[in-house]
């Protein structure tokens, strides 16, 4: 399963967690988590593993406020708005840069 998959990847001791997407009976995706800057090079990964872009938060100079998705926004809407919030490191405050250079939300990709 997912545990063996994550163990098979380079730098397994540097992993900080694992996420499983799918149902109890069918796993659609295994996600092996590394801290930013600790993800193995794509040349070291097996061909069945995909490297995802690192997550980041957009915070003010004090680190106390972060840009995040508005609380009333659901991912099913056509419009998503962001606002400054108390920085709590929630997925609603995490973003990725896509391969084509767009900034997207981790919670609503």
Q: How does this model look, in words?
A:
- The chain has 109 residues and is mostly beta strands.
- Helix content is 6%, strand content 29%.
- The protein has one helix and six strands; from the N terminus they run αββββββ.
- The protein has one helix at 2-8; strands spanning 15-22, 27-34, 65-69, 82-86, 95-97, 103-105.
- A two-stranded antiparallel ribbon has the order 1-2. Strands 3-4 form a two-stranded antiparallel ribbon.
- The longest helix is centred in the first third of the chain and has 7 residues, at 2-8.
- The chain starts with a helix and ends with a strand.
List keywords for this structure.
1 helix, 109 residues, globular, 6 strands, mainly beta
Report, as a whole number of angstroms, the end-to-end distance: 26 Å
The protein's oligomeric status is single chain
Mean pLDDT metric:
83
Strand order of the largest sheet: 1-2
Radius of gyration: 16 Å
Uncertain stretches: none
The major β-sheet equals: 2 strands, antiparallel
Question: Structural class of the secondary elements?
Answer: mainly beta
In terms of DSSP E residues, the strand content is: 25-35%
Looking at the structure, what is the overall shape? globular
Number of helices: 1
Number of strands: 6
